[in-house]
Please model this.
Amino acid sequence: MRNIKAAIFDLDGTLIDSMYVWKKVDVDFLTQRGIPVTKEYTEAVRGMFFRTAAEYTRKTYGLEESVEDIIQTWLDMARHEYANNVRLKPYTKEYLDVLRKKGIKLGMATSSDPYLLEPVLKNNGIDGYFDEICYTSQVGRNKSFPDIYIYTAKKLGVSERNCVVFEDIIEGINGANKADMYTVAVYDEASKDSEKHLRDAADRYIFDFSDMLEGFVCSETA
Model:
């Protein structure tokens, strides 16, 4: 059994109900330019780093805007939603409060951008909750690899074996498994088609954080 000393959370789709934002940004950005949104495009850019997605979009549609301008436009469109409309998933704050009271260190491992992260944490009253916030851009590889989780654990000063990771996508669960961390898959509408894979890959699967409050804080792995 493990002695859990740190909890590492993904942001989008795990702590916050935000996955709709990126679909909205895709639709609004392309529609404003008279370009139809296709499933092929949506699938192609999913999981790409911002710059890679911007380069792909510019090349695919022959846009005159620079990659930097495309990125900034996307960020500005998303920031408005993050600062005003994006909310925590059910029982998130309550669970974070319990972990803090128990002295569990809190980390975040995200592919998001500080420009978006800061307003959404403040908007939902959890700014200052996390001991460390780490970004995939700092390690140069996506969440299919263990790098971001190992990096976050190191920043928290906790052994990988003493960490629990919460993720909503199979890539994240697989990456955290490679880091030898206890993994909890969190249901999200955007990844519901991957539920079976998530259940098979993760140590535990939950629908929301009320499942963690009902007798399972970190004690089940302690």
Remarks:
- The mean pLDDT is 92.
- Strands lie at 6-9, 105-110, 132-135, 163-167, 182-186, 204-206.
- The radius of gyration is 18 Å.
- The chain is about 45% helix and 10% strand.
